[in-house]
Amino acid sequence: MSRVLRPSRRLGTHWLTSTHSYPNYSSCKHMSTASSSAHVAFVGLGNMGLPMALNLARNRPTELDIRHITVHDLHPPNIEKFMRLAGEEGLNESSTTYSAAQTLADVAESNPDFIVTSLPTCEASESVVQTIMKHSSRNQDQSLKIIDTSTISVFTSRKLHDLVSSSSSQNDYIDAPVSGGVKGASDGTLTFMVGCSSPETFSCIQPLLSKMGHSIIPCGVPGSGTAVKLCNNAALAAQMVGICEAMNLGEALGVDPKVLAGVMNVSTAKCWSSQVNNPHPVAARDIGSGASAKNYEGGFGCALMLKDLNLAMDEAVGQGLDMPVSGLTRILYGKVDAGGYGAKDFGIMLQYLKEKK
Ligand code: NAD
Protein backbone atom coordinates (compact mmCIF):
# COMPACT_ATOMS: atom_id res chain seq x y z
CA MET A 1 0.00 0.00 0.00
CA SER A 2 1.43 3.39 -0.93
CA ARG A 3 1.62 5.98 1.80
CA VAL A 4 1.18 9.67 1.21
CA LEU A 5 3.15 12.02 3.43
CA ARG A 6 1.22 15.07 4.60
CA PRO A 7 2.46 18.15 6.39
CA SER A 8 1.45 17.78 10.04
CA ARG A 9 0.24 20.53 12.30
CA ARG A 10 1.13 20.54 15.96
CA LEU A 11 -1.63 19.40 18.27
CA GLY A 12 -2.74 21.47 21.21
CA THR A 13 -4.28 20.03 24.37
CA HIS A 14 -6.16 23.15 25.41
CA TRP A 15 -9.29 21.74 27.02
CA LEU A 16 -7.26 19.28 29.09
CA THR A 17 -5.28 22.07 30.69
CA SER A 18 -8.24 24.42 31.07
CA THR A 19 -10.02 24.77 34.39
CA HIS A 20 -13.25 23.50 32.82
CA SER A 21 -14.63 20.58 34.88
CA TYR A 22 -16.33 17.59 33.30
CA PRO A 23 -20.11 18.01 33.11
CA ASN A 24 -22.47 15.32 34.37
CA TYR A 25 -23.45 12.69 31.84
CA SER A 26 -27.04 13.92 32.04
CA SER A 27 -25.95 17.11 30.28
CA CYS A 28 -24.98 15.11 27.19
CA LYS A 29 -27.50 15.93 24.47
CA HIS A 30 -26.66 13.10 22.13
CA MET A 31 -29.81 11.00 22.26
CA SER A 32 -32.78 11.08 20.01
CA THR A 33 -35.04 10.63 23.07
CA ALA A 34 -34.97 12.13 26.53
CA SER A 35 -34.02 8.78 28.08
CA SER A 36 -30.41 7.80 28.73
CA SER A 37 -30.57 4.86 26.33
CA ALA A 38 -28.74 4.91 23.07
CA HIS A 39 -28.73 3.26 19.68
CA VAL A 40 -25.14 2.29 18.82
CA ALA A 41 -23.86 1.07 15.46
CA PHE A 42 -20.62 -0.89 15.16
CA VAL A 43 -18.69 -0.99 11.86
CA GLY A 44 -15.77 -3.38 11.39
CA LEU A 45 -16.19 -6.77 13.08
CA GLY A 46 -12.64 -8.09 12.75
CA ASN A 47 -10.25 -9.44 15.38
CA MET A 48 -10.80 -6.40 17.59
CA GLY A 49 -14.23 -5.18 16.51
CA LEU A 50 -16.12 -8.45 16.99
CA PRO A 51 -15.28 -8.90 20.69
CA MET A 52 -15.73 -5.17 21.29
CA ALA A 53 -19.21 -5.25 19.75
CA LEU A 54 -20.09 -8.33 21.82
CA ASN A 55 -19.07 -6.46 24.97
CA LEU A 56 -21.39 -3.63 23.97
CA ALA A 57 -24.21 -6.15 23.61
CA ARG A 58 -23.46 -7.76 26.99
CA ASN A 59 -25.15 -6.01 29.82
CA ARG A 60 -22.08 -4.43 31.37
CA PRO A 61 -23.27 -1.80 33.83
CA THR A 62 -22.26 1.80 33.13
CA GLU A 63 -24.18 5.07 33.18
CA LEU A 64 -25.40 4.27 29.67
CA ASP A 65 -28.14 1.85 28.62
CA ILE A 66 -27.88 0.63 25.07
CA ARG A 67 -31.31 -0.06 23.65
CA HIS A 68 -30.20 -1.21 20.18
CA ILE A 69 -27.01 -2.22 18.37
CA THR A 70 -26.67 -2.25 14.59
CA VAL A 71 -23.63 -4.11 13.23
CA HIS A 72 -21.95 -3.97 9.85
CA ASP A 73 -18.79 -5.31 8.16
CA LEU A 74 -17.65 -5.31 4.54
CA HIS A 75 -17.22 -9.07 4.89
CA PRO A 76 -20.74 -10.56 5.46
CA PRO A 77 -19.49 -13.71 7.29
CA ASN A 78 -18.23 -11.42 10.07
CA ILE A 79 -21.76 -10.03 10.51
CA GLU A 80 -23.13 -13.57 10.59
CA LYS A 81 -20.51 -14.51 13.19
CA PHE A 82 -21.58 -11.63 15.46
CA MET A 83 -25.25 -12.59 15.12
CA ARG A 84 -24.47 -16.25 15.82
CA LEU A 85 -22.25 -15.58 18.87
CA ALA A 86 -24.71 -13.04 20.28
CA GLY A 87 -27.52 -15.57 19.80
CA GLU A 88 -25.52 -18.38 21.43
CA GLU A 89 -24.89 -16.18 24.47
CA GLY A 90 -28.58 -15.34 24.66
CA LEU A 91 -27.82 -11.63 24.33
CA ASN A 92 -31.05 -11.13 22.40
CA GLU A 93 -32.88 -12.00 25.61
CA SER A 94 -31.41 -8.93 27.34
CA SER A 95 -32.88 -5.44 27.14
CA THR A 96 -30.53 -4.62 24.26
CA THR A 97 -31.75 -5.65 20.82
CA TYR A 98 -29.52 -5.85 17.77
CA SER A 99 -29.68 -6.05 14.00
CA ALA A 100 -27.44 -6.57 10.98
CA ALA A 101 -26.98 -3.84 8.37
CA GLN A 102 -25.97 -5.02 4.92
CA THR A 103 -24.61 -1.65 3.78
CA LEU A 104 -23.16 1.51 5.29
CA ALA A 105 -26.17 3.40 3.94
CA ASP A 106 -28.35 1.07 6.04
CA VAL A 107 -26.20 1.89 9.06
CA ALA A 108 -26.58 5.64 8.55
CA GLU A 109 -30.30 5.39 7.83
CA SER A 110 -30.89 3.34 11.01
CA ASN A 111 -30.26 6.66 12.78
CA PRO A 112 -27.77 5.67 15.51
CA ASP A 113 -26.66 8.06 18.25
CA PHE A 114 -23.13 6.64 18.18
CA ILE A 115 -21.15 4.77 15.53
CA VAL A 116 -18.06 2.89 16.73
CA THR A 117 -15.58 1.85 14.03
CA SER A 118 -12.70 -0.65 14.12
CA LEU A 119 -11.10 -0.59 10.68
CA PRO A 120 -7.74 -1.63 9.26
CA THR A 121 -6.45 1.45 7.41
CA CYS A 122 -6.73 5.22 6.96
CA GLU A 123 -8.43 4.60 3.61
CA ALA A 124 -11.08 2.36 5.22
CA SER A 125 -11.81 4.94 7.96
CA GLU A 126 -12.10 7.73 5.38
CA SER A 127 -14.39 5.77 3.10
CA VAL A 128 -16.64 4.57 5.96
CA VAL A 129 -17.00 8.01 7.56
CA GLN A 130 -17.64 9.76 4.22
CA THR A 131 -20.31 7.22 3.26
CA ILE A 132 -21.98 7.47 6.66
CA MET A 133 -22.10 11.26 6.49
CA LYS A 134 -23.49 11.13 2.95
CA HIS A 135 -26.39 8.93 4.04
CA SER A 136 -26.95 10.24 7.56
CA SER A 137 -30.54 11.33 8.00
CA ARG A 138 -30.31 12.89 11.47
CA ASN A 139 -31.89 16.29 11.78
CA GLN A 140 -30.24 19.32 13.35
CA ASP A 141 -31.63 18.52 16.85
CA GLN A 142 -30.11 15.05 16.89
CA SER A 143 -26.45 14.37 17.26
CA LEU A 144 -24.18 11.70 15.85
CA LYS A 145 -20.90 10.81 17.53
CA ILE A 146 -18.54 8.72 15.41
CA ILE A 147 -15.91 7.04 17.60
CA ASP A 148 -13.04 5.67 15.53
CA THR A 149 -11.01 3.09 17.46
CA SER A 150 -8.82 2.25 14.45
CA THR A 151 -5.11 3.07 14.39
CA ILE A 152 -4.76 5.64 11.62
CA SER A 153 -2.73 8.78 10.92
CA VAL A 154 -3.12 12.02 12.85
CA PHE A 155 -3.80 13.75 9.53
CA THR A 156 -6.73 11.41 8.78
CA SER A 157 -8.13 11.74 12.32
CA ARG A 158 -8.15 15.52 12.07
CA LYS A 159 -9.55 15.52 8.55
CA LEU A 160 -12.44 13.25 9.58
CA HIS A 161 -13.07 15.35 12.67
CA ASP A 162 -13.33 18.46 10.48
CA LEU A 163 -15.66 16.67 8.05
CA VAL A 164 -18.06 15.40 10.71
CA SER A 165 -18.07 18.41 13.04
CA SER A 166 -18.68 20.83 10.16
CA SER A 167 -21.87 18.95 9.19
CA SER A 168 -23.72 20.07 12.35
CA SER A 169 -22.81 21.52 15.73
CA GLN A 170 -24.31 18.32 17.24
CA ASN A 171 -22.08 15.95 15.30
CA ASP A 172 -18.59 14.92 16.26
CA TYR A 173 -15.79 12.55 15.27
CA ILE A 174 -13.60 11.23 18.07
CA ASP A 175 -10.31 9.41 17.63
CA ALA A 176 -10.11 6.67 20.26
CA PRO A 177 -7.47 4.11 19.27
CA VAL A 178 -6.91 1.22 21.63
CA SER A 179 -4.19 -0.70 23.39
CA GLY A 180 -4.59 -4.17 24.88
CA GLY A 181 -4.86 -6.37 21.80
CA VAL A 182 -7.45 -9.04 21.05
CA LYS A 183 -7.34 -10.30 24.64
CA GLY A 184 -8.11 -6.83 25.99
CA ALA A 185 -10.93 -6.51 23.45
CA SER A 186 -12.40 -9.87 24.54
CA ASP A 187 -11.99 -9.22 28.26
CA GLY A 188 -13.32 -5.65 27.99
CA THR A 189 -10.08 -4.31 29.47
CA LEU A 190 -8.85 -2.11 26.61
CA THR A 191 -7.20 1.25 27.09
CA PHE A 192 -8.78 3.98 24.93
CA MET A 193 -6.69 7.03 24.02
CA VAL A 194 -9.24 9.70 23.30
CA GLY A 195 -8.79 12.82 21.19
CA CYS A 196 -11.90 15.00 21.11
CA SER A 197 -13.10 18.54 20.87
CA SER A 198 -14.38 19.22 24.40
CA PRO A 199 -14.86 17.78 27.90
CA GLU A 200 -18.60 17.55 27.10
CA THR A 201 -17.88 15.20 24.20
CA PHE A 202 -15.54 13.15 26.38
CA SER A 203 -18.24 12.82 29.04
CA CYS A 204 -20.75 11.70 26.41
CA ILE A 205 -18.62 8.87 25.08
CA GLN A 206 -16.91 7.73 28.28
CA PRO A 207 -19.82 5.50 29.50
CA LEU A 208 -19.96 3.82 26.10
CA LEU A 209 -16.22 3.15 25.96
CA SER A 210 -16.38 1.87 29.55
CA LYS A 211 -18.41 -1.07 28.26
CA MET A 212 -15.37 -2.13 26.21
CA GLY A 213 -12.40 -0.96 28.26
CA HIS A 214 -11.02 -0.21 31.71
CA SER A 215 -8.95 2.91 31.03
CA ILE A 216 -10.55 5.72 29.06
CA ILE A 217 -7.94 8.43 28.87
CA PRO A 218 -8.55 11.94 27.51
CA CYS A 219 -5.45 12.91 25.53
CA GLY A 220 -6.54 16.35 24.29
CA VAL A 221 -7.89 17.84 21.08
CA PRO A 222 -8.93 15.82 17.98
CA GLY A 223 -6.00 13.77 16.68
CA SER A 224 -4.25 13.59 20.05
CA GLY A 225 -5.54 10.09 20.87
CA THR A 226 -4.05 8.89 17.61
CA ALA A 227 -0.80 10.76 18.29
CA VAL A 228 -0.47 9.12 21.72
CA LYS A 229 -1.15 5.67 20.27
CA LEU A 230 1.54 6.07 17.57
CA CYS A 231 4.10 7.39 20.09
CA ASN A 232 3.35 4.51 22.47
CA ASN A 233 3.82 1.89 19.78
CA ALA A 234 7.01 3.45 18.40
CA ALA A 235 8.47 3.22 21.92
CA LEU A 236 7.09 -0.31 22.34
CA ALA A 237 8.77 -1.56 19.15
CA ALA A 238 12.15 -0.22 20.28
CA GLN A 239 11.60 -1.72 23.74
CA MET A 240 10.82 -5.15 22.29
CA VAL A 241 13.81 -5.17 19.94
CA GLY A 242 16.05 -4.19 22.88
CA ILE A 243 14.72 -7.07 25.01
CA CYS A 244 15.09 -9.50 22.08
CA GLU A 245 18.73 -8.48 21.59
CA ALA A 246 19.48 -8.84 25.31
CA MET A 247 17.75 -12.25 25.59
CA ASN A 248 19.63 -13.43 22.50
CA LEU A 249 23.00 -12.25 23.83
CA GLY A 250 22.37 -13.73 27.28
CA GLU A 251 21.49 -17.14 25.87
CA ALA A 252 24.55 -17.08 23.58
CA LEU A 253 26.68 -16.36 26.66
CA GLY A 254 25.21 -19.44 28.36
CA VAL A 255 22.79 -17.71 30.74
CA ASP A 256 19.47 -19.43 31.53
CA PRO A 257 16.71 -17.27 29.88
CA LYS A 258 14.58 -17.65 33.04
CA VAL A 259 17.41 -16.26 35.18
CA LEU A 260 18.07 -13.37 32.79
CA ALA A 261 14.37 -12.41 32.57
CA GLY A 262 14.01 -12.79 36.35
CA VAL A 263 16.91 -10.40 36.99
CA MET A 264 15.71 -7.90 34.38
CA ASN A 265 12.28 -7.88 35.95
CA VAL A 266 13.65 -6.65 39.27
CA SER A 267 16.26 -4.41 37.64
CA THR A 268 16.51 -1.39 35.39
CA ALA A 269 15.62 -3.19 32.12
CA LYS A 270 12.18 -4.16 33.49
CA CYS A 271 9.41 -3.29 31.04
CA TRP A 272 6.26 -4.77 29.44
CA SER A 273 8.32 -6.71 26.89
CA SER A 274 10.52 -8.30 29.57
CA GLN A 275 7.77 -8.96 32.09
CA VAL A 276 4.38 -9.49 30.45
CA ASN A 277 5.31 -10.48 26.90
CA ASN A 278 8.84 -11.84 27.12
CA PRO A 279 9.92 -12.89 23.60
CA HIS A 280 11.83 -15.95 24.85
CA PRO A 281 9.47 -18.96 25.11
CA VAL A 282 11.34 -20.41 28.11
CA ALA A 283 11.17 -17.12 30.04
CA ALA A 284 7.54 -16.56 29.03
CA ARG A 285 6.55 -20.01 30.29
CA ASP A 286 8.29 -19.28 33.59
CA ILE A 287 6.52 -15.92 33.95
CA GLY A 288 3.21 -17.47 32.90
CA SER A 289 2.39 -14.95 30.17
CA GLY A 290 3.54 -14.06 26.68
CA ALA A 291 2.70 -15.11 23.14
CA SER A 292 6.18 -16.60 22.63
CA ALA A 293 5.17 -19.55 24.84
CA LYS A 294 2.36 -20.28 22.34
CA ASN A 295 4.56 -20.23 19.23
CA TYR A 296 4.01 -16.44 19.02
CA GLU A 297 0.28 -16.94 18.32
CA GLY A 298 -2.46 -14.65 19.62
CA GLY A 299 -0.32 -11.60 20.38
CA PHE A 300 0.29 -8.31 18.60
CA GLY A 301 1.19 -9.16 15.00
CA CYS A 302 4.38 -7.96 13.27
CA ALA A 303 2.28 -6.62 10.36
CA LEU A 304 0.28 -4.42 12.74
CA MET A 305 3.47 -3.18 14.42
CA LEU A 306 4.93 -2.40 10.99
CA LYS A 307 1.78 -0.47 10.10
CA ASP A 308 2.04 1.58 13.31
CA LEU A 309 5.76 2.25 12.76
CA ASN A 310 5.03 3.45 9.21
CA LEU A 311 2.37 5.81 10.57
CA ALA A 312 4.67 7.08 13.36
CA MET A 313 7.57 7.63 10.95
CA ASP A 314 5.32 9.53 8.55
CA GLU A 315 4.32 11.82 11.43
CA ALA A 316 7.99 12.30 12.35
CA VAL A 317 8.81 13.31 8.76
CA GLY A 318 5.86 15.73 8.81
CA GLN A 319 7.27 17.32 11.97
CA GLY A 320 10.84 17.36 10.62
CA LEU A 321 11.94 15.03 13.43
CA ASP A 322 14.63 12.40 13.30
CA MET A 323 13.66 9.01 14.82
CA PRO A 324 16.70 6.85 14.09
CA VAL A 325 15.73 3.96 16.38
CA SER A 326 12.19 3.78 14.98
CA GLY A 327 13.69 3.91 11.48
CA LEU A 328 15.69 0.81 12.34
CA THR A 329 12.85 -1.05 14.05
CA ARG A 330 10.71 -0.33 10.98
CA ILE A 331 13.34 -1.94 8.73
CA LEU A 332 13.57 -4.96 11.06
CA TYR A 333 9.79 -5.47 11.28
CA GLY A 334 9.58 -4.99 7.50
CA LYS A 335 11.99 -7.91 7.07
CA VAL A 336 10.13 -10.14 9.53
CA ASP A 337 6.82 -9.32 7.84
CA ALA A 338 8.27 -10.01 4.38
CA GLY A 339 9.56 -13.32 5.72
CA GLY A 340 5.97 -14.49 6.21
CA TYR A 341 5.67 -13.77 9.94
CA GLY A 342 3.26 -10.84 9.75
CA ALA A 343 0.61 -12.60 11.83
CA LYS A 344 3.04 -13.74 14.54
CA ASP A 345 3.50 -11.75 17.75
CA PHE A 346 6.14 -9.05 17.38
CA GLY A 347 8.32 -10.84 19.95
CA ILE A 348 9.24 -13.22 17.14
CA MET A 349 11.98 -10.68 16.42
CA LEU A 350 14.07 -12.83 18.79
CA GLN A 351 13.87 -15.77 16.37
CA TYR A 352 14.79 -13.48 13.47
CA LEU A 353 17.90 -12.35 15.37
CA LYS A 354 18.80 -15.97 16.12
CA GLU A 355 18.50 -16.89 12.44
CA LYS A 356 20.80 -14.02 11.50
CA LYS A 357 23.60 -15.38 13.74
P1 NAD B 1 -9.08 -6.76 11.15
O1 NAD B 1 -8.48 -6.67 9.81
O2 NAD B 1 -9.16 -8.09 11.84
O3 NAD B 1 -10.55 -6.15 11.15
C1 NAD B 1 -10.96 -5.07 10.36
C2 NAD B 1 -12.39 -5.31 9.91
O4 NAD B 1 -12.83 -4.18 9.18
C3 NAD B 1 -12.52 -6.53 8.98
O5 NAD B 1 -13.53 -7.39 9.47
C4 NAD B 1 -12.93 -5.92 7.63
O6 NAD B 1 -13.78 -6.75 6.87
C5 NAD B 1 -13.62 -4.65 8.09
N1 NAD B 1 -13.63 -3.62 7.05
C6 NAD B 1 -12.60 -3.19 6.28
N2 NAD B 1 -13.01 -2.20 5.46
C7 NAD B 1 -14.33 -1.99 5.73
C8 NAD B 1 -15.31 -1.10 5.21
N3 NAD B 1 -15.01 -0.24 4.25
N4 NAD B 1 -16.57 -1.17 5.72
C9 NAD B 1 -16.87 -2.06 6.70
N5 NAD B 1 -15.98 -2.92 7.23
C10 NAD B 1 -14.72 -2.89 6.75
O7 NAD B 1 -8.25 -5.74 12.06
P2 NAD B 1 -8.16 -5.73 13.65
O8 NAD B 1 -6.98 -6.52 14.11
O9 NAD B 1 -9.50 -6.00 14.21
O10 NAD B 1 -7.75 -4.20 13.91
C11 NAD B 1 -8.70 -3.15 13.78
C12 NAD B 1 -7.98 -1.85 14.13
O11 NAD B 1 -7.50 -1.91 15.49
C13 NAD B 1 -6.76 -1.57 13.25
O12 NAD B 1 -6.70 -0.21 12.95
C14 NAD B 1 -5.58 -2.03 14.12
O13 NAD B 1 -4.38 -1.33 13.80
C15 NAD B 1 -6.09 -1.66 15.50
N6 NAD B 1 -5.51 -2.46 16.60
C16 NAD B 1 -5.43 -3.81 16.48
C17 NAD B 1 -4.88 -4.55 17.53
C18 NAD B 1 -4.77 -6.06 17.44
O14 NAD B 1 -4.11 -6.67 18.31
N7 NAD B 1 -5.39 -6.71 16.46
C19 NAD B 1 -4.42 -3.91 18.69
C20 NAD B 1 -4.57 -2.52 18.77
C21 NAD B 1 -5.10 -1.81 17.72
Automatic annotation (TrEMBL):
GO BP terms in the entry: branched-chain amino acid catabolic process
Record pathway: Amino-acid degradation; L-valine degradation
Reaction catalyzed: 3-hydroxy-2-methylpropanoate + NAD(+) = 2-methyl-3-oxopropanoate + NADH + H(+)
Keyword tags: Branched-chain amino acid catabolism, NAD, Oxidoreductase
EC number(s) on file: 1.1.1.31
Domain 6-phosphogluconate dehydrogenase NADP-binding, residue spans: 40-219
3-hydroxyisobutyrate dehydrogenase-like NAD-binding domain location: 223-352
GO molecular function, one term: 3-hydroxyisobutyrate dehydrogenase activity
Keyword rRNA-binding included in the entry's annotation: no
Domain of life the protein comes from: Eukaryota
Keyword Membrane belongs to the record: no
Family under the similarity heading: Belongs to the HIBADH-related family. 3-hydroxyisobutyrate dehydrogenase subfamily.
Name of protein: 3-hydroxyisobutyrate dehydrogenase
Organism: Cyclotella atomus
